[in-house]
Amino acid sequence: MTGKARARAEGATILAAFEAAGAQPVEADILQPADTLLDLYGEDIRARAYVTADPLRGELMLRPDFTVPVVQMHMADGAEPARYCYLGEVFRKQEHRGARAAEYLQVGYEVFDRVDPVAADAEVFALFARLLAPLGLTPATGDIGILLAAVRGLSTTGRRKAALLRHVWRPKRFKALLDRFGGRVPVPESRAALLAGLAAGTRPDPGAPLIGLRTEAEIDARLAALAEDAAAPPVSAEEVGLLDDILDLAAPAPAALAHLRDLARALPAIAPAVERLAARLDALDARGIGVDTLAFEASHGRTTLEYYDGFVFSFHADRPGLPPVASGGRYDALTAVLGQGRSIPAVGGVIRPGLVADLGGLGPC
User: Against a cut of 0.90, is the pTM above it?
Assistant: First the structure.
């Protein structure tokens, strides 16, 4: 049996287990409209997606994952609650030759349920843990919602908070912004010179021709935003330190919860998200997950696709350089974006059956 055949056989076994758990099997087109994905992720997605053009349908991308089309399908005409499963190829452009495949199978499980989101989190994670148990993988968990809540709770301008929220999934850019907003690094010389000119009432190059797509009004609005940012006081050292503490937090889940509760006294905005973490751990414990040793990293999931906004998880094999065998998380905000005013709490995850096959397979599920 070839590698692809073994991967598809493992995928079919996992898909059958997802169906047995109550999920409805669905399909999604391999060619996805590029405008939807660009609206969600910006131009950055071009670096990791295969882009093509159709004379009638316009710009298209080879399916980078299933979640977006499944959410679109559900928000169009899905009943509530709903559970879906799927199996098929996804495509991710790679910049370097290595172990990561540019085309591989995903088998996934998605839950749309507004009654008890915490229970849905636990359901998905426990299902994956049970199915993958024969492989002896190491799980990791996190909660993007805690970091998002911390940023929203900062005592700074709305523009600064929006910039930080936009770059949560770009850790280097996020840190650079936080350092600048907190006054830990100086303003770049080019920006300092521009700001000095604005402060003196001088518009840069008033006679220069307009180049690019921005109008003069848009340029003036951008200059006004830069001036507003320069006039704003830095984010306090205390708040920057609290964010650093959250970003660096990695501990067994109960210890992480205790530490986050301590931080919530100084940053009350994170308290609701922290208590959701506590409820999730109780729900996981009720499903037989050993939460006392379950790893929690507050930054977990920050380098994956940008729709996760709450609980995140992954399962890893003890092989250097191997991508996660499975991963997933909560993406409530994505349903609001694609639902045209409607939304529903949603959580799901994917397993890479090719990696499962390479690790020896699951046997009967």
Answer: no
**Cβ–Cβ < 8 Å for 102, 94:** yes
Look up tokens 């970003």; give the residue.
247
| Residue 89 bridge partners (DSSP) | 105
Q: How far apart are the first and last CA of the chain?
A: 20
Query: What is d(CA 362, CA 365) in angstroms, rounded to the nearest whole number?
Result: 7
Question: Is 228 inside a domain boundary?
Answer: yes
Nearest CA among 14, 48, 86 for reference residue 365: 14
240 occurs within a structural domain: no
Are residues 289 and 252 in contact, defined by beta-carbon separation less than 8 angstroms?
A: no
Domains: count for the chain: 1
Burial per residue of 310-343, b for 16 or more beta-carbon CB atoms within 10 angstroms, e otherwise: bbbbbbbbeeeeebbbbbbbbbbbbbebbeeeeb
Whether 91 is in a domain gets the answer no
In a domain, 304, yes or no: no
Q: Which residues contact 177 (CB under 8 A, 6 or more apart)?
A: 160, 163, 164, 167
Contact 75, 335 (CB under 8 A): yes
How would you write the pLDDT of the chain (365 residues) with one tens digit per residue?
568 899 999 999 999 999 999 999 999 999 999 888 887 777 777 878 899 888 989 899 999 899 999 999 999 888 889 999 999 999 988 776 666 788 999 999 999 999 999 999 999 999 999 999 999 999 999 999 999 999 999 999 999 999 999 899 889 999 999 998 998 877 666 666 655 665 656 655 655 565 666 666 766 666 666 667 666 788 999 999 999 999 999 999 999 999 999 999 999 999 999 999 999 999 999 999 999 999 999 999 887 767 899 999 999 999 888 889 999 999 999 999 898 778 999 999 999 999 999 999 887 76
| Residue among 360, 313, 351, 308 at smallest CA distance from 330 | 308
* Residue matched to tokens 């030759």: 97
- Domain range spanning residue 194? 184-233
